[in-house]
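Page 47, continued from p. 46.
Same chain as before, 409 aa.
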Amino acid sequence: MDPRKSLFRKVERAIEAIERSSDASSTITGTAGAIIENFREELGVRGGRLYERRDGGYELTRVFGGAVAVPGIFVPDAYPPVQQVVDEGVVVLDLTAPGVDPEFERKLGVDRFAAIAVGEDQYILSFSVDPVAQSEDLMASLGILRHAVDQKLRQERFVSVLNEARQIQMSILPRRSPRRGEFDIAGYTVPAEIVGGDFFDFIPVTERIHGIAIADASGHGLPAALQVRDVYTGLRMGVARDFKIVRTVERLNRIINQSRMTTKFVSLFYGEIEEEGNFIYVNAGHPPPLHFHAKGVTTLKQTGMVLGPSATASYSRGFLSLEPGDALLLYTDGMTEASDPKGREYGIERLKKAFLALREEPADEIVRALVDKVGEYVRIRAPEDDRTVVVVKRILSGEPGPPAPGPVS
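Result:
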């Protein structure tokens, strides 16, 4: 077999080992082990050492493959080989190279070494190599592996940030469904990615009035999730200060308009329901909720444009009376615009029909079942958009009341 072909097959195996790692520590140690295992013969790689950045330099923290150095040795930033590997990314040096301290390197058991800087120079991996090893092949192989390690570490950092964002996002969702006299209320959301741009909230305004919100930031992923956080904060602050709902929404619109986020369009439906069933709401460009009542189904129209495009947008209120036996269904467009393999959308009529079939069930069961039905319709395809549903039911006299509150998402 061509020696070069054999070498690069081993490079591929080392990359596969890097990609299988689960965190930064295992990525670094796995890389060191893979390099020693795969390149001992072709490139004369012997022992390895891991240095981690500390104030003013790098500390030796681990050794691999029979290296004789003792962890704890500190190498200052000013040491020329450190400067060179940070500047160039990959170096191969012997004891005669400019700036190399032969006495120091011999304490490490080194006559010739190769090193790579990874993780935005947070780590240096150094390997003892045979004097006769080909520098060109060694530099090329280590350069490829350095690139693979950096990609993996960036991916891990990104996933870590997303997971932290998800924890923040989940923390702003209601922990449980509210219990409000004759009302059975629940919500459920499924993001298209680790974090999403959909949001719902249940806000106790007074002992007699409860706020219900659902929102959808344009796009999905981290930018949309951060925009949703602003909506949550602004809405809660407005309610806490006893602002009227129109004024609260207008303030939110100005906040979104001035935001520097890449997603600056948020649809929002916010309403406040009283014990007697009176419901006052503002619909800022959100898909119209459905009011199920004795005479049929009524859509709650928009009362203003989506939040964000215009700082001077105005909003008006809508009103309805939720009678015993009535229900409200709030949803985001990820529900109705989800499409099957032939491109046919789930649509509002299917959503109505699905709700009517579930209407007698508890609200927390309805919301989950509706999201599941959309998933079944698209045949388990990964969702292209976040999906969120909120249900508000007013219990008929003589019917069992709302169940004990449980998790809503």
